[in-house]
Amino acid sequence: MGVYTFVALIALGSLSQHQFELDDLAYLNDLDQIHQDPSAIFSADRRLPGRPVTDMALLLIQMSFTDNPTAFHVALVFCHLITTVLLTFTFLKTGLNQELSLIGGLFFLINLAHFRAIHWISCLAYPLSLSWGCVGILAYIAYHETPRYKWYGISVCGFVLAILSHPAAIVCPLFIAYFTWQKKQPMRPILSIGIISLAVLIGLLKLFPQVPQAEHATAVLQWHIIDLIQHGFWYLGRLWVSTFTVFREMHDIQTPDLLLGVLVVIGVIVLWYYRIFPTAHWGIWMLLSTVVFITNPNQTHFESGPSRHLYFASAGSAVLLAWACQQLSLKVSRSSQSRPKICLTLLITLITGLSIVGLKKSEAFTYIISARTYLVTNQKEKATQLFEKAVAQAPELVSSAMYERFPIANLAEGKFLNDSLHQALAQYPDNKLIVAIRMIYGFQSNTVDHQHLTDRIVAFAQQNTKDIQEFVAISCLNLGYFYATKLQHSPAEILYQGALKLKPGYPEAAVHLSQIYIKQKKNDAARQILHLAIDHYPTHVDALQNLAALYHREKNWDQTEKLYKRLLTQQPHATDILFKLGYIYMSQKNYAEARPLFETLTQQTPKNWQGFAYLGQCLHAQGHTTAAVRAYQRALKLKPNQSELQVLLRQLTP
Fold first, then answer.
1. DSSP readout, 100-115?
2. CATH number of the structural domain 591-654
3. What is the rounded radius of gyration, in angstroms, for the C-alpha atoms of the chain?
4. Contact at 8 Å (CB) between 634 and 612?
5. End-to-end CA distance of the chain
6. Can you give the residue ranges of every domain in the chain?
7. What pTM does this model have?
8. Residues 10-54 pLDDT 10s
9. How far apart are alpha carbons 532 and 500 in whole angstroms?
10. What is the dihedral of CA 389, 395, 399, 405, to 10 degrees?
11. Fewer beta carbons within 10 Å, N or C terminal of the chain?
12. CA distance 257 to 238
């Protein structure tokens, strides 16, 4: 336990600095609902339903430490450590010698293949369910050694809690059924456990049809047998390939993975045929653990591939790897009794070192996914910090999409990610968009000719694809916005014009450019650019609002009225538009048109005293004195010191 803890601190201790990602945040929202109403744990409307034991464990952490990501990550690593210890005892009880059990436990603890199950807080379900599954297996073995019903009861509870933690834990009673059959022990006790476990699983999937495993069970009926086999070989191949290393294209199904998967199946068959037990038993465990996930219809599991789905299977591969190291050390060192131990120690040290280095690198994937989460939730500064951590951790694992996205997004704040761009160019030297971003970063120079550089960038983008042109247009928009906030209107104008050349009618660029024109008293140019944007994007709200505001300032009531009406067709309850259009009708003494607008406004914003005041004027003008008095009284209740309202009310109630 001490060695495991020490290794876990070295390999996984830095996870305490990690943040949440989208599924984690969804789980936290679910936990808030459960905390307010415990019955919500059975709600089918939740993001991740069907794991009540995991829900309770996460809720306990949240109640103890609130929404502190460090506490959640530490708890997850601790649960993984406990699982490793229980698994080591399980190895021992299934017949492995002490040396092989300890080595297998160590290789499972630092197994790189399942790193996502330890990095992702919502994946607590995996170590938690395997822990309970090990309890069930150990208790059932104890029941056969000393037939006492307390062990049988603990075994049943262990398996049920495992399945209620994650449905994939059905592999645990399946494995113990196989183990009992292979040992030629009575099958009746395990048959009862199997029926109970299956009933719990079916009930869970029926109660929560949205749970991923329920969807996968349905998907299997739609899959071709060849697809299922291919997926299974891919999982097995990826399990072994990613044991020692991580790489950028982990989400792709590749031919070497499939070939290795075939070899793994053949290897397990050979072990079983030659009765190399109990090692072969854990080969069977590995195959069973793979089967429960191969129906997953989504074959691209973020950047990390099927990592979290390999958690159960990696227990089997850890034993096989430990056995292979043991056998290799014996083969290499036949001539000396001491050499096998030295050779085995060297192999363990090598694999441990490779795994720890790989686990440190794999954190780049987690940083990227968290960065994407915070970018989506408009926390750009935090997202950028996480992105830069990923680049510093393992620049070769960061996707080109992220290298493109973050340098562009930060231009709006005038922040240039030069180190990240340098790494991007090193990793993707032929990426045209990254080359364009490097050109855009030329605006950092104090002596830059803004017009000349913008023309060069636009000309370069126009020689490439529409996607590149759109991204470069966004870059020009963001950097133009930064210059505008610094009141540097000349370079901002040049960049907005560049964005419009690449994306004609680009509404965001048109709106910002029109605001510069208005400040320069170029109303005609502002009007022209906004009309161009609306021609290309007829329903763009900001362009319509800015053009309406321009006509409003110019007191062109006909055009203003038309634009406000267009806006109301898209946003019928936009209170600012209701007020402005109602005010225009009021100024034209068109009370019949103004009245319904103010009625809607007061319904939408019952604390808007001006809405009630103007409604009262409309009603008064139309001869509805009693209703006008009520409207004025509501307005005065909201704004008691409004003297004009007091005068109007006294006139109506002498």
1. HHHHHHHHHHT-GGGT
2. 1.25.40.10
3. 33
4. yes
5. 90
6. 2-362, 591-654
7. 0.78
8. 988 888 888 888 777 777 887 777 777 777 776 666 666 668 888
9. 10
10. 50
11. C
12. 6
